[in-house]
Amino acid sequence: MPTTYLDQKAKTVVKILPMNEEHLKDILCIERKVQMEPWSKQMFVDELSNKRSLNFVALVNNIIAGYLCSAMVYDELHILNIGVAPHCQRQGIGYSLLMEAVAAATKNKICAILLEVRETNLPAISLYKKAGFVKIGIRPNYYASNSGKEAAILMIKYLR
Ligand SMILES: CC(C)(COP(=O)(O)OP(=O)(O)OC[C@H]1O[C@@H](n2cnc3c(N)ncnc32)[C@H](O)[C@@H]1OP(=O)(O)O)[C@@H](O)C(=O)NCCC(=O)NCCS
Fold first, then answer.
1. Is 14 helix (H, G, I), strand (E, B) or coil?
2. The whole model's pTM is what?
3. What number of CA atoms fall less than 13 Å from residue 95's CA on the CB side?
4. Residue pLDDT, tens place only, 73-130
5. How far, in Å, from the CA of 73 to the mean position of ligand 1?
6. What are the start-end ranges of the H helices in the chain?
7. Phi and psi, residue 144, nearest 5°
8. Fold type of domain 3-158
9. How far apart are CA 12 and CA 92, in angstroms?
10. Distance from residue 29's CA to the centre of ligand 1 (Å)
């Protein structure tokens, strides 16, 4: 069953569905536009075949506008990837995808959700703060960047 979210500001209706292989062509097209180090098709396929993964797509007018991949590790959920098509950003889609992951994690009795984000990725950091994540650490020189290396900020959202 899809979950439907309405962004009050933009009045965008976002339908969230479990991800499947048929979605990958459109997801890869977005992924290559929005990520500094895009995942390959195989990386998405591997997540889809992982029984402990929770992967979603967001549809606007039945067209894929965003996606989220996450995996349960013991009683934690790790957010592995999230992206929203450039022309669909700032309409509540990233937030809706995260809320779907929170709901699925709660259903699976997960204690906490963790993620890493580039220290310069202010849109993503703002999104995670809005969704209730807090900073718990820094991994220096974690990502390759245009200027060499950059740190990852480690964030967590406790569910219970
Ligand atoms: C990060 C990303 C997924 C956000 O998706 P989105 O659908 O645009 O986010 P939303 O519209 O749901 O925004 C929710 C909140 O996040 C924050 N936010 C999102 N984009 C922002 C921006 N460009 N600048 C500042 N804050 C921003 C705001 O607090 C926003 O709430 P508001 O609109 O009420 O102010 C999207 O920008 C993206 O795909 N970026 C490239 C890929 C990426 O960086 N992924 C994360 C890797 S860790």
1. strand
2. 0.97
3. 19
4. 999 999 999 999 999 999 999 999 999 999 999 999 999 999 999 999 999 999 999 9
5. 25
6. 24-34, 41-49, 93-107, 122-130
7. -75, 145
8. Aminopeptidase (3.40.630)
9. 8
10. 18
